[in-house]
Amino acid sequence: MTWETLNNNKSVKSVTSIDGYTRSPDTEKKLNQLFGSVFKGDDGKQVLAYLKSITTEAVAGSNISTNELFHLEGRRFLLAIIQSRINANLKDK
Predict the structure, then answer these.
(1) What pLDDT is recorded for position 77?
(2) What's the whole-model pTM score?
(3) Residue 38: alpha-carbon gap to chain centroid
């Protein structure tokens, strides 16, 4: 299954995801399975730990610019999407 197939899967019934997009429940489930699969092994866990170290565990100093703060919050939101999809996949099992 390709991203185009997932993205173009138009179904009558749809849900709004954590990322703000509306997709079919089947597409959401498939995306959660993909994230669960990618981050399941040791390599994926190391990548996830790295992402956490530069996002949720990063401490912004008092001299951080507004632009840098926006970037940090964007990275944190993306990590939250990844973690939510991993958790959803584990919950579905």
Answers:
(1) 95
(2) 0.79
(3) 11
Domain count, the chain: 1
Cite the beta strand spans of 10-77 per DSSP E.
15-16, 22-23
Task: Give me the percent of the chain exceeding a pLDDT of 90.
Answer: 59
CA 49 vs CA 11, 40, 45, 57, 68: distances in Å? 35, 12, 6, 10, 21
For residue 79, give its domain range.
3-92
CA dist 53 → 24, 62, 65, 76, 93 (Å): 33, 19, 20, 10, 28
Dig out the tokens for 68 from the structure. 């840098």
| More reliable by pLDDT, 4 or 87 | 87
